[in-house]
Write a structure and sequence with these properties.
147 residues, six-stranded mixed beta sheet, 5 helices, 8 strands, 24% helix
């Protein structure tokens, strides 16, 4: 099952954990995609916007950080629900982005190369928010195209 929560107040603790656990060696997904992590992904994955419209990513999210080990678990989980990412600029689904959904609506987003054998980690979060039109984020994801 999933690892228990980590209790720590120091942001540097989580950043060092992310770097040592993810950035040194790629994770292989259940369907054999090699996922690479970059240090600068930490801010995107573990900070939230105070104001969703401004997308400022100014507040550290302990809710996200306490699930740091879930990223690997979701990527390796063959029962995860897989969806294509949605490109808001082209208003179409994008084969280069994959969204994996698992327990508690936990989302992991990766961006694949052209051969779709390697990917870069983009972000991870709990899809519990509501978009500007009042729709739940998880409902929007699950109404999209399957991978």
């Amino acid at each position: 099952m999933i690892c228990t929560f980590i209790i720590n107040e120091e942001i540097s603790f989580y950043k060092n954990l992310f770097i040592s656990f993810y950035c040194k060696t790629p994770i292989r997904t259940f369907d054999n995609i090699l996922v690479f992590f970059k240090e600068n992904n930490f801010e995107h994955a573990f900070f939230e916007s105070v104001n969703r419209r401004e997308k400022d990513k100014s507040k550290f999210s302990y809710k996200r950080a306490n699930r740091i080990y879930w990223i690997k678990w979701v990527l390796e989980n063959p029962t995860a629900e897989l969806y294509k990412g949605y490109n808001h600029l082209t208003k179409s689904y994008d084969d280069s982005r994959r969204i994996s959904v698992c327990i508690d609506n936990y989302i992991v987003v990766i961006e694949l190369n052209k051969k779709q054998d390697k990917a870069t980690f983009i972000t991870a979060y709990i899809a519990d928010g509501v978009n500007g039109k009042g729709k739940k984020a998880i409902d929007l994801i699950k109404s999209g195209e399957k991978w």
